[in-house]
Amino acid sequence: MYNKATSLVHHFLSELILDGDHVVDATCGNGYDTIELLKLVGAQGRVDGFDIQKQAIETTRERLSIQGKVDNVFLHHASHSTMKDILPAGSSLKSVVFNLGYLPGSDKSITTNPEDSLSAHSAALDLTMPGGVIFTTVYTGHEGGKAEADRLLEWARALDSKQYSAARHQWLNPRKDAPFLLIVQRRS
Amino acid sequence: MYNKATSLVHHFLSELILDGDHVVDATCGNGYDTIELLKLVGAQGRVDGFDIQKQAIETTRERLSIQGKVDNVFLHHASHSTMKDILPAGSSLKSVVFNLGYLPGSDKSITTNPEDSLSAHSAALDLTMPGGVIFTTVYTGHEGGKAEADRLLEWARALDSKQYSAARHQWLNPRKDAPFLLIVQRRS
């Protein structure tokens, strides 16, 4: 569980999220996190998924359709930086999950970018309920990845520690360019 | 749970340790981890505790005596770097917990030192069973703390990733000199 970012995030999510929670998958990608989140919030919860790539939204929708009843998932072909405008007014999120970088198995030149990622993180923080957590897996191997990571870390370091706890989980002896995990929690 | 090293370690321990496991508290300090470990291994398990300070061993023994039946706890007034000689032959540990630095509420000039800490970590790794984990809370605020941290990180980065997974959990917006957590797991 400690040896991979995806396992650790799914583990933390399974402890945090309760039946009926509202959560956001900020980067649907291939849909794995969306499906995981859907299981965790249950039939009374709600998942909103975002991706700027049409292919990601379609793949996610296909994967979801295999799950049967999915009328509590809302997929948005839009940048996660617009989540404040798109989510229902008064949304109070238990968790927002980001996977930064490019869509696995797709065009590696299409990546998240520092400006959008930063403004999406600020929006996510505003929408997060007390005790809620933003989990961000940050890949740095692609072009611009390092700059994006630096901007996010700078943002996290500047957060008021009375209101938020920010931590970075980094693997020390991994394969080259392994991602790190950024965890930001709004204090209860 | 994510906002403090002690909470995160206790949370990880509660998931990892099963009834009947053998574990080591490499730095008894004020005994809190020893007691937590004792609860987790149950009556069939075993806890060995080490500390170079007599005061720490006495405080821990006192705290333990309040818990009632404690004939499966063995306290050693000795450096953790000697654990290989002191533990029963063939010991196979589920976890080893370190708190590096000085004994809280005591003489701040008596601290763990890089040489002992490093050799204790090597010993701990040799004694750890597949899937077992070393959790080390590393304080860097005291004199020599930074050097000790650097040596340990260097050691962790050099571990063979096929055999071990090493990660560092670091708080980004904490009070000055907050500790970080080092997690080393022997792969199953």
List the main descriptive attributes of the protein structure presented here.
25% strand, alpha/beta, Rossmann fold, homodimer, 188 residues
Mean pLDDT score of chain A, rounded? 91
| Poorly predicted residue ranges of chain A | none
CATH architecture of chain A: 3-Layer(aba) Sandwich
- Give the strand order, joined by hyphens, for the main sheet of chain A: 3-2-1-4-5-7-6
From the N-terminal CA to the C-terminal CA of chain A, the straight-line distance is 26 Å
What is the share of helical residues of chain A? 25-40%
- The number of strands of chain A is 7
How many structural units, i.e. domains of chain A? 1
- The percent range for strand residues of chain A is 25-35%
Instruction: Choose one word for the global shape of chain A.
Output: globular
CATH H-level name of chain A... which superfamily?
Answer: Vaccinia Virus protein VP39
What would you call the quaternary organization? homodimer
Listing every helix as H and every strand as E from the N terminus to the C terminus, the arrangement of chain A reads: HEHEHEHEHEHEE
Largest sheet of chain A: 7 strands, mixed
Largest interface: A-B, 28 and 28 residues
CATH class of chain A: Alpha Beta
Q: How many helices of chain A?
A: 6
Structural class of chain A: alpha/beta
Determine the CATH topology of chain A: Rossmann fold
Radius of gyration of chain A: 15 Å
Describe this structure in words.
2 copies of one chain form a homodimer. With 188 residues, chain A is α/β, with parallel strands linked by helices. Chain A has one domain: Vaccinia Virus protein VP39 (Rossmann fold), CATH 3.40.50.150. Chain A contains 6 helices and 7 strands; from the N terminus they run αβαβαβαβαβαββ. In chain A, α3 links the parallel β2 and β3. At the A-B interface, α6 and β6 of A face α6 and β6 of B.
